[in-house]
Amino acid sequence: ETQRYAAVLDAVIARAGLLRAEKKLRPHLARVLVYELLLGKGFRGAGGRWKPLLSRHQARLKAELARLKVRQGVSRNEDLLEAGSRPGPVSQVPRFVRVNTLKTCCGDAIDYFKRQGFSYQGQASSLEDLRALKGKHFLLDPLLPELLVFPAQTDLHEHPLYLAGHLILQDKASCLPATLLAPPPGSHVIDACAAPGNKTSHLAALLKNQGKIFAFDLDAKRLASMATLLARAGVSCCELAEVDFLTVSPTDQRYDRVQYILLDPSCSGSGMLSRPLEEQGSGTPSQERLRALAGFQQWALCHALSFPSLQRLVYSTCSLCQEENEDVVRDALQQNPGFRLAPVLPSWPHRGLSTFPGAEHCLRASPETTLTGGFFIAVFERAEVLSSASQAEALAPELAPSPAPKRKRRRRKADVQAAGAGAAAEATCGK
Ligand SMILES: C[S@@+](CC[C@H](N)C(=O)[O-])C[C@H]1O[C@@H](n2cnc3c(N)ncnc32)[C@H](O)[C@@H]1O
Q1: Average pLDDT, the chain
Q2: Is 196 annotated as belonging to a binding site?
Q3: pTM value?
Q4: Ligand 1 touching residue 196 (CB < 6 A)
């Protein structure tokens, strides 16, 4: 019975904050106890030391169960099972698969799946096509190149192409930061908070392994799994460092040529998909935690914007909270008047909250609006004109014409490069 009600119990436990308040209570035991308390026959003299603990939370737990019933529009406990089994927006998010172009190409990956009995439906023309995917059908995403889309429940974790690093299982929203940063091959890029490295491997694919990625992270364990991921993905242009990004000196000459920075800092994760429980966004972070996270994000963003050769920066989070998103971006723009927001993907349906002029250039994502996890992205670009030959050369020395082009031409080239991915993606969007 406890298993049957697991999703209901987890939802009630999460909303009542039981595990946060009682650190010693393990999740599976919490389920059994809360089942007995709310849905079973009560402790009836049993319950031992857990009984007084549960009694302290009884009122809140009962209230959350009642609220859940109101939200689902049901009156009996059993009806919650029925309502819970209806597919919610989170469980309708398709399985996105990025083809790793360092190891293979889209055509070969598609052929492999076809040989395995999957049926390729061509490029989708709208989100509705993705929503309608079923069985062994798959599509190419309407917006992002090299992104295959399978029905929501498709599990490819044991697929040989995934195990060989030819495929990266990565949500569409999480593919946007590297796509919108769009560093051309040969450029130098910083991935400031890089582990476990899905976006780093995407950057390396865009660079075609030419140029350099300086990837930083504080967490040794996450860096170790990142090293494995990058090796499997065939990434050879990345220098990994166990370093606090805030201590990386922008004037160190190693970073002289860094024109692109991806900043995907630690965040509350309030937009992350939690497929089994349909509990996305339910664990609302406390104001105190949000303040601490936003303080770090703000600091890291302003630090990144101080790299002297920087031309373009993507700031992203998997948070839904304004404090970590629009507020951080607004403050960074106020403190860095030399930068502005790039107007990317104008047809993307979900925009930044209108909390400051220009916030509509930010992108938001969610299961309901974009069929992805919850996400936020802002693209910063330097507002001033490129002013020296060395900057143009630093953009992509192997590709830079010689002699250096005139100032006006250089500016156009940089604009085109900066807009390239967005424009290319835009061209296929909503067809
Ligand atoms: C959201 S995750 C990054 C995910 C990664 N970009 C990806 O796509 O796989 C945030 C990372 O920032 C790291 N981090 C937190 N504070 C940091 C700091 N001061 N300097 C460098 N990395 C930091 C965390 O260890 C964590 O791995």
Answers
A1: 85
A2: yes
A3: 0.74
A4: yes
Encoded tokens for 422:
């967005």
The arrangement of secondary structure in 172-394, i.e. its CATH architecture, is 3-Layer(aba) Sandwich (3.40)
Please state the rounded mean pLDDT for residues 370-375: 94
Question: Choosing from 175, 318, 321, 429, which is the catalytic residue?
Answer: 318
Do the Cβ atoms of 137 and 151 come closer than 8 Å?
A: yes
Q: For a substitution probing ligand 1, which of 203, 218, 230, 249 has the most ligand atoms within 8 Å of its CB?
A: 218
Cβ of residue 193 lying under 6 Å from some atom of ligand 1: yes
Residue type, 374: G
C-alpha 284 to ligand 1 mean position (Å): 21
Beta bridge partners of 382: 339
Closest to 272 in 3D by CA, of 240, 238, 313, 320: 320
183-215: per-residue pLDDT in tens? 999 999 999 999 999 999 999 999 999 999 999
- Indicate the CATH number of 91-169+416-430 among 3.30.450.40, 3.20.20.10, 3.30.70.1170, 3.20.20.370: 3.30.70.1170
Q: Is 318 a catalytic residue?
A: yes
